[in-house]
# Entry
Amino acid sequence: DFVMTQSPDSLAVSLGERATINCKSSPSVLDSSKNKNFLAWYQQKPGQPPKLLIYWASTRESGVPDRFSGSGSGTDFTLTISSLQAEDVAVYYCQQYYATPITFGQGTRLEIK
Amino acid sequence: EVQLVESGGGLVQPGGSLRLSCAASEFTFSSYWMSWVRQAPGKGLEWVAIIKQDGTEKYYVDSVKGRFAISRDNAKNSLYLQMNSLRAEDSAVYYCVRDQGTDFWSGYDSWGQGTLVTVSS
# Structure
């Protein structure tokens, strides 16, 4: 099975500052034949279902603010929020959809410092 | 706007059964892979099962194999999850989810609000 490990488990960042969340997959989620990383990022606010932010590791979902960006390839990925806003307080999950069982990271809780 | 509305959750005793339903609307249901994802109270997300557009391929997480069955009725725009031999560890909010890809998986772009399943005596 693919194991997705996020770091840190929790993070406190000041408003307007950069927030960075990491996700490591084992094994790689890069499909060389398609040149795509089968990795997504989700945001979940309390009492709400998750929301897709990023797919193919770096493609922003329609309507997602451009302060959210995804990067990385193979086994190491990063979600960056360039300038933290109050509404970004949430739990963030990475997910691999390369193969079943589809797996999520354990989540990273992002708070305001 | 895509709509996914789950129903069928509730309180059930260990060893019991439940059938979850998901009513889909505002998109061509038969064109998409569909999944169930669950989340135990205060815990992270766990993928449960996925079904191909025509129902010919189904995949499950190991912990539910042989107990849960995913199915769909494209004529009724509905997704189902038959859950048998329920255990306390199956207690969770169950989300009906659409994979945005049509040719291959591409991430879950639409989620229902979820239905709560509680397994307890």
Remarks:
- The longest strand of chain A covers residues 19-26.
